[in-house]
Amino acid sequence: MDVDNDKTFKVSAIKNGTVIDRIPPQSLFKVIEILGLDRTDHQITFGTNFDSKHLGKKAIIKITDSFFEDRDIDRISLIAPEAKLNIIKDYKVVEKRQVSIPRQIRGIARCFNPKCITNQQQMETRFTTKIERGGISLVCHYCEKITATKNLQIISKSRTYPIDF
Amino acid sequence: MPKSLISIHDLSKEEILHILHTASAFEREPDSSLLRHKVIATLFFEPSTRTRLSFETAANRLSARIIGFTDSGSTSVTKGESIKDTIKTVSNYADLIVIRHPLEGSARYASEVSSVPVINAGDGANQHPSQTLLDMYSILKTQQSLDGLQLTLVGDLKYGRTVHSLLQAMSLFSTRFTFVSPPELAMPLEYKQFLQHRNLSYKESKDLLPHIPEADILYITRVQAERFSEPMEYEKVKNVYSLTASMLHPCKPNLKILHPLPRVNEIALDVDNTPQAYYFEQARNGIYTRMAIMAYLLGLT
């Protein structure tokens, strides 16, 4: 058992569900929002500012009886690129999944360019990801402008689109 | 999805050369019946008279028929119709759509919902690939080759989409670049890095005069007052990049001056009568280039 897992148990073990580990503390509430955990009926525990070998400080979320699709995991990869998912069945880790940044992403982030068509019409955004020293940047498939990490806005599941004209 | 022309990156070097050679054939024989049974739609969601007339002339020269609108004020857009619905509808009527729209990325989106080829005639500050191709046709025609030329770009190099697209397309032909602009409007870093990745050399300068003798092509763009936060800053630079006929001594015998038009005061009227002035012929070349683009996208060349 490595150091990270040892810390995980401080937040109380779950019988069945998902543990999301190695979340940067500043992204914790964003991850909760993106995964729609603020509207779930399942039990959730989360903790933040744990010591982490990898990140310095990290946050952890445990969700009882919930399992996630790859598409949802892609959503958090933009703000928690090193996140690790442990799938728990009967108190045991049955599967570990590493979040990976997909080359193409659809409908997860918003283009920062206000004159981009995707901010004016009811349509899905599309980007190519570019990993640079400063983090991840997104090249818009439509307006070709680059959205840098510091301008990154994630589209939450409850998002409504503005109507054009 | 049918083949569309949205961004200059959509074309390979071979496709660019194919279109330019077809343009040359159309210039020798400008009246053609190649598109006799075709309907071309020109959808201008914002007015651009010069570009629209150029496309419509090209379509007419190819014997196509034309439908469309010249600004969105008289269309269902004012009732809140989405771009998608407009394009879906028109692609039932026409064989090819030319679109001009103020929003960036609109033409790419149109090409994804259209069942016929789409040509981007300008999407905001993003792309205007037929302009790039007509610039390249003008360069090819006046220099006999696109390879290894000295291309000097002058004026607003920061916001000017024409210079960015031209830089990217000409980088396929071992071009040497010189960027002449006020520091406020210098070529953005991403384009300089783009050239470095391709091992192409470039120079940067605030002064135009020392770079005229070495140039094969002087590509001049307008410095717009609205790009400056301080009106005084604009007043300081606006005449610095104004080209006059006396500045063209000495120059290379093959030097040509290009400008995407409209011109204001960046090229003095006395330049018009020099053998180097080429901007009005450049506009005419737009007709042959756009004929070639339409014919290519319709699979007829």
Structure report:
The complex is a heterodimer of chains A (165) and B (301). Chain A is mainly beta and 165 residues long. Chain A contains three helices and eleven strands, in the order H-E-H-E-E-H-E-E-E-E-E-E-E-E. In chain A, a hairpin with a 5-residue loop joins strand 9 (135-140) and strand 10. Chain A is elongated, with a radius of gyration of 17 Å. The relative contact order of chain A is 0.16. With 301 residues, chain B is of the alpha/beta class. Chain B has two domains: 31-127, Rossmann fold; 130-283, Aspartate/ornithine carbamoyltransferase (Rossmann fold, 3-Layer(aba) Sandwich). In chain B, the strands form two sheets. In chain B, strands 7-6-5-8-9 form a five-stranded parallel sheet, with helices on one face. In chain B, helix 1 packs across helix 9 (279-297). The model of chain B has no long low-confidence stretch (mean pLDDT 94). The chains are: A mainly beta (165), B alpha/beta (301). Chain A binds chain B through residues 111, 113, 115-118, 120-123, 140-146, 163-165, and chain B through 7, 77-78, 80, 82-84, 101-106, 108-109, 123-127, 190.
